[in-house]
Structures are given as C-alpha cells and as structure tokens.
Amino acid sequence: MSGVVLCFDYGTRRTGVAVGQRLTGTARPLTTLAMPQGQPDWAAFDALLKEWRPSDLVVGRPTHLDGTASTLTATAEAFAATLRERYSLPVSMADERLSSRAAEELLREQRTDGRRGRIDKADVDRYAAALMLEDWLAQPHPATTHD
C-alpha cells in the first residue's frame, strides 16, 4: 500500500487534481486535466495513475450549500463509479462545498504577497482539489487493503 491518494475536483470542462499522503496527512495541487466534450481524457488519467500509483482516489461531491444535490452531483458520482471500475481502487466522495471559494482566496493571498502571478480557473481547480484532499485526509479512514 503506497499511502498516496489522488483527489479530483471534477468538472465538465476541467478536472483539478491533487496528490496527498496518508502518512503525513498533507496534500498539494498537482495538475488540471481537460475534459474534451465534457468527457475524461482517459489517457491522461491513466498516465497519472501509472505515475503516482495511489492506494485511494477521492472525488469531490458537488452540492448546494445546504448539502442537497446539485445538477453536477449525479455526474460526479458516475465519474467516481467509473474510476472505481476502471482502476479497481477504493474511491471516496468528499464534500466540496466552498472548496473553490477557499482556493480562490488562498491564491489571491499568494498573489498579494508576491508569491504568484496571474490566477486562472485551472489553478483554482487543482488548489480546490488539494483543499478537499487535506480535509479528507484529516478524517479517520480504515486502512486500505488489496487482495
């Protein structure tokens, strides 16, 4: 078991990706993948999973602020089910409420401090994935085992 976890901030145009480590409980933004015609670029996903060899995958579950399902909830859940089937790995759903807003705030602070330049939506997506993953890693989870 690697202890590496990949998290996806699923979107129909872009999917932000973060990588984290169960042992340290830390996560960092990794990349943003294009979603041509609203569909995953499976070659890009395959390459990421081959490179990082995660023990777990996490997908952001988009909901309204009150926790009720949004128009993207079922699509993100279907994406998570496809990941589970395609890669034979455990896939968890993570609450993504306000993750993009928190990511935008963090990036604006970095820009104000002079630590970064222009901010684009791809930056927000991957940073949102990292924030979601840090929250997920902070929660207790059973150890992952593979047969």
From TrEMBL:
One of its GO terms (molecular function) is nuclease activity. One of its GO terms (cellular component) is cytosol. Keywords: Cytoplasm, Hydrolase, Nuclease, Ribosome biogenesis. GO terms for biological process: rRNA 5'-end processing. This is Putative pre-16S rRNA nuclease. Its EC number is 3.1.-.-. InterPro entries: RNaseH-like_sf, YqgF, YqgF/RNaseH-like_dom, YqgF/RNaseH-like_dom_sf. It is an enzyme of class 3 (hydrolase). Residues 3-103 form the YqgF/RNase H-like domain. Could be a nuclease involved in processing of the 5'-end of pre-16S rRNA. Belongs to the YqgF HJR family. It holds the Pfam family RuvX. The keyword Hydrolase applies.
